[in-house]
Amino acid sequence: MKKTKLLLSITAISIILIFSISGCKDEPTENNEKVDFCSCINTENIAKSIPIIDEFLSELSENMNDEQKLQELVTWLKSHPCIIDADIICQSCIETEPQISEILISFEENGETKDIVFDISMTNPLKIAGYNEKHYPLDIPFREIIYNGECFCPWTNLKFGKVVIVNSDEELKKYINCTCGNFPKIDFSKQSFLISLNYSPDGKLFYHVAKSITQNSTKNYKLDARVRLINTCRYDYGWSSLLITNKINEDCIFEINEKFDEESELTCECADEFFFNTLYNKIYFGDNFLNDILLISFNPDFPFKEIEDYIYNTGLINSIFWKENNWIFVNTKEQKSCNELKDIIRIFESSKYINFVNFVFEVKPLEYDFFCGGYMYYLNEFSVGLHSENDFPLLQEVIQKTNTKIKSHNDEGTYYILTSDKNSEGDAIKMANYFYETGYFISSRPLMKSIRISGRPVYQNIFLPNYNIFNNDTFMFLND
Known about the structure:
By secondary structure, the protein is α+β, with helices and mostly antiparallel strands. The chain has helices at 2-22, 33-40, 50-58, 66-78, 169-172, 304-313, 338-349, 392-402, 428-437; strands at 83-94, 100-109, 112-121, 127-133, 138-140, 142-144, 162-166, 191-199, 204-215, 220-234, 238-246, 253-261, 275-277, 282-284, 289-298, 317-324, 327-332, 354-363, 371-385, 405-409, 415-419, 443-454, 469-474. The relative contact order is 0.09.
């Protein structure tokens, strides 16, 4: 009998010890609530902290608004000794029914700082809808402010080499004064606006900057910038970043990592495809191929926001950095070969949102030229010169065969502007060469255009703070 009592006592003590070691209780007690909660704050038992948090949320006053409730939750989380930090990532930023807010907590486990994001269902009362652990480094999505050639906004109070994190309209007004009405609306309850101004080495001018953002820890981010420089232009220039991201707290730290490319790392293996015919020879320009820029013409029947969402969601581009009429320039995520760009073009042209996608080329600057180079591009137009108006039936025959269309012509009926699209037998370059090589016509050429960069800096232009742009210059003669 004594042995039985002793055995029962030992068993009871063992059970108590087991529960003491496991620590995390499903139900909190009034006296040791903080101990109970902290015993759950580890990657193995974090789910068991949810009833404790939900209990706290259920006791908040109904007179509080949602923001006040989230702030109270953050304060309560920080009151626990096991929590290193807690922050509201965003409020009602996930568009579900009901909407979801996000709160980040940091704690130490096995000598490492761990980050957990709680999803807060915006019901009454608020409730935990789920959680996930953050694994660093993280790629942070963003959208770049698109220059459309219409709006110029002066900026102030910026420091070179520093990323400014803006989280309110009031804060934005400290840096930007935009009166033309075209500056995009930013939902600061869900988004942040990042501004950065940086020098280029030796004062060299740049064509464009491809950017990426990486989060390396709770408070540490890195802005990577790949800057394409122009060799012959040397002025006191810089490059800028104007990016919209998901919410980032103002106390986060940004490191800027720059890579400067003076030449493309890849050659164009299909350079011989880019030419046009004259009366005497072929003019090749494929060596000026830019391997990280494309021109995309979009369908204006759809809202641009919907088109923009589609383009970014493909994961194929880094940013949209120029918009004009119904076309845009985009950066790819990295330099691509010609054939790799063709694959990207095929993907985009399969979409209802896209009319056509074309290559872009570099305009090489001259040593003493006022202009410092720029972009050469083509849309969907090409010209066809007839020997006489009697050749019109031949023109109609080739148009029908290639699925191209007449846009305009001269009064004599000897000079026509035609258009192609993704349903034609090729783009404007290929179609112009095809028409010429039939032997029916005196001339046929793609209508090339250029955006040319001036050597005069404009310091007060937020969208293009480093140069003047002269757009839509006719780059090549339309007739011999």
